[in-house]
Specification:
about 725 residues; mainly beta; 10-stranded mixed beta sheet; 6-stranded mixed beta sheet
Length: about 725
């Protein structure tokens, strides 16, 4: 061994010099086995590493490789004199890019960049530590200790292979994931996953739970949810659970009953979790039941002494000020295919609803006030006092459609005959509309048939399929509502048509907003606007009779007619004797072009006696109707604008100029005062002339009386007892 310690310059081996800073600047040392720098005993250190020893262990020592700023500083580990054996292992610092790299087997394996990123198997690390394997094989980091052992099946690995990423423990011990210095997720050695809140789990994923208390023979895996408890996390058990299940028969597993089950605590919270919902392997959803009917959705609910709904569907949609939206809370689409050749495929129902008492249960005998198979409430129900606007609101809308094929019978709303086979139905209504309310009405745009499914060409048809009465019955609160009240209209059993009033009131008929005929409650008939019958038939105005041949005699009946042979008015008694009613005056009743004869008012017992007929010459008779202020005549005047009448006025009104106007009756009339209003312009049906009672009612009404029949007339008579005007 040769030691060069504090050797004077003149004693250095040939070619070796020592400068003032004690640096060896060049040359070789032949035959020297150990060199000690700042130590006199390099041979004391390990024999396989004491060829060069720096320092004696008494302070700071070091070695420096000083390179150009654009070059490298190298330490090579060679095992040959050529090729990469010159640097089988190496440490190199690149001064140009300031990275440090480490190599083995002649190639770089680790690099530390200028930014401090460490790359293993990659010279451009993307993160602080970047581990890369330049093949498709796995790239892993393994962690072990003396407890785990150090083999390839010990400890924990982190990494990836060609298709998966791994955080993988080989040990039968918990695996923890944590944040903020606390464990958050724990995977037990048996595979249970605990999502931990403080020290206790709130979510448990349990694998292969074979609890015998569960409905199925085998529960394949569960997801349990726990609330925080100071007790052991598995007591008192989960508050909710999701379980994947399948049936097991012995050691043979079948999946006929496989499904996903959802559980929550029972109502009292004392007996653990109970099943609430299940998704079967067929895709059927069961809520509140474990038994599938084969339907896609099965909902079952039991409720005790409380108002509960089977399910509530609530949809809230918010539209912006510029939005146009269609809001559909729920939509049911049914699409099915019926193969060619099938003649009766049963029924198709997009929505099928049953609501029966005593169905599937026993002992249901209590009293129920209301029972609904479908209950719809709609409209506006303000919660904030706002005032929204809806153009059209519909409780139910049915939109029938057919754009191909043939539909033999399309019924928008079909009510089947009731099935009563043991119970008692006191009243049954096909359709019942509660009321009354003036805002409620019913609109039918098509034909309506009652008792018939194919109405005739008329808009409404009432049909009785049996040989029985078929009536419409009209009643109100005044008449009462029994079968002997109100008014009926329809066919009797033999086909006879009835208009029948059960009340001791008049039956009135009108046209053009005016009364034309009244069946007086006492039995008389009044033709005109009045309701006072002077006989069985009372006519207000002109009556025309069609010419006819002499009728045959009828016992007990007299007949009045205009005989076509001489155009004269005759009366035939029940013995068949004819009397020419105008024979004494030697004149006749003129026959108009259409063949009718004009009769005097007294002939047919008009209201107001004393009507006379005189020969006017040329075959025309003049009819005189007495009256006018009770003094025997009217004072006639022609009016085309508003006018206030006096008693005895005969006012000829003319609105042919295109202007409607008003005639006002006298303000302080006396009993029996009369005013005649007659149309001579022939335009009152278009430009109506009103008659104002001037503070007095006209025929029981405070409304104006309309003269609206062309060439019609009316006499207004004041009655002081009732303080109103009558009309004749």
């Amino acid at each position: 061994m040769v030691e060069l310690i504090d050797v004077p310059l003149n004693q250095f081996p040939s070619g070796i010099t020592r400068n003032a800073s004690a640096a060896i600047t060049g040359g070789t040392i032949n035959g020297v086995t150990s060199i000690g720098v700042a130590t006199s005993n390099p041979g004391d250190l390990a024999s396989d590493a004491n060829d060069l020893v720096i320092g004696d262990g008494s302070g700071d020592f070091g070695a420096t490789i000083y390179s150009n700023a654009a070059n490298n500083g190298n330490i090579y580990f060679a095992d040959g004199t050529s090729g990469d054996t010159l640097y089988a292992g190496f440490i190199q610092y690149n001064h140009g890019s300031n990275f440090l790299r480490f190599g083995t087997n002649g190639a770089e394996k680790v690099r530390i960049t200028s930014g401090g990123e460490v790359g293993m198997g990659i010279n451009t690390p993307a993160n602080q530590l970047h581990v890369h394997r330049n093949t498709t094989a796995g790239s892993f980091a393994r962690f072990t200790n003396t407890t785990t052992g150090t083999t390839s099946s010990d400890g924990i690995i982190v990494g990836i292979d060609s298709s998966n990423a791994y955080l993988y423990s080989y040990e039968n011990t918990p695996l923890y994931l944590g944040t903020n210095g606390l464990g958050r997720i724990r995977i037990d050695g048996g595979g249970d996953v605990n999502i931990i809140r403080t020290a206790n789990p709130t979510l448990l994923l349990n694998n292969n739970d074979t609890s015998s208390t569960w409905d199925y023979n085998d529960v394949y895996s569960t997801l349990d949810f726990h609330t925080q408890s100071t007790a052991h996390p598995y007591t008192p058990g989960p508050n909710a659970s999701i379980r994947a299940v399948h049936t097991r028969t012995g050691t043979s597993h079948t999946y006929a009953d496989a499904g996903l089950v959802f559980l929550t605590l029972d109502e009292g919270g004392s007996t653990g979790v109970e099943e609430r919902m299940r998704i079967t392997q067929d895709g059927n959803l069961l809520i509140g039941t474990t038994t599938s009917t084969g339907a896609q959705l099965n909902v079952y609910k039991e409720a005790y002494n409380t108002a509960q709904y089977g399910f509530i569907l609530e949809h809230r949609h918010y539209a912006t000020s510029t939005g146009t939206v269609y809001n559909n809370a729920a939509q049911i689409n049914m699409r099915s295919k019926i193969d060619t050749g099938i003649t009766d495929s049963g029924h198709r129902a997009a929505l099928y609803v049953n609501n029966f008492r005593n169905w599937g249960i026993t002992g249901d005998a209590g009293s129920l006030t209301q029972m609904y198979c479908g209950l719809f409430q709609y409209g506006h129900l303000s919660e904030d006092g706002s005032s929204p606007v809806t153009s059209n609101a519909r409780g139910v809308q049915i939109s029938p459609t057919c754009n191909s094929g043939t539909i033999t019978s399309m019924v928008d709303l079909y009510l089947t005959a009731p099935s009563v086979s043991g119970g008692t139905v006191t009243n049954h209504w096909g359709i019942f509309q509660a009321g009354p309310t003036s805002d409620t009405s019913n609109f039918f745009n098509g034909k309506v048939g009652f008792g018939i499914n194919l109405p005739s060409t008329y808009r409404v048809q009432l049909h009785e399929p049996n040989a029985a009465n078929n009536y419409m019955h009209f009643t109100n609160a005044t008449t009462g509502s029994t079968s002997g009240d109100g008014f009926v209209f329809g066919n009797a059993t033999d086909g006879t048509v009835y208009l029948y009033n059960y009340e001791s009131t008049h039956a009135r008929f009108g046209t053009n907003n005016g009364m034309r005929l009244t069946l007086v409650s006492g039995g008389g008939v009044v033709i005109g606007a009045g309701t006072t019958a002077a006989g069985m038939l009372s006519v207000e105005g002109v009556t025309a009779l069609q010419e006819t041949t002499a009728p045959s005699q009828t016992s007990g009946w007299g007949k009045l007619y205009v005989k076509s042979s001489d155009s004269k008015l005759y009366f035939m008694d029940d013995s068949g004797n004819e009397t020419d009613l105008l024979a004494g005056g030697g004149s006749s009743i003129p026959v108009q072009d259409e063949g009718s004869a004009v009769l005097t008012a007294s002939t047919l017992n008009f209201v107001g006696a004393g009507v006379t007929a005189t020969d006017g010459g040329s075959g025309v008779a003049t009819i005189t109707i007495p009256g006018g202020g009770g003094s025997g005549g009217f004072s006639y005047t022609h009016k085309t604008a508003n006018y206030t009448a006096s008693a005895g006025d005969g006012i000829r009104v003319d609105s042919s100029g295109g202007t409607a106007f008003t005639i006002t009756l006298p303000s302080s009339p006396s009993d029996g005062d009369e005013v005649l209003v007659m149309d001579v312009g022939g335009m009152v049906e278009t430009y109506v002339v009103d008659v104002d009672g001037n503070g007095k009612d006209i025929v029981g009404s405070s409304d104006n009386f309309d003269v609206d029949v062309n060439y019609g007339s009316a006499i207004f008579v004041f009655d002081s007892t009732t303080d109103q005007w009558g009309v004749r």
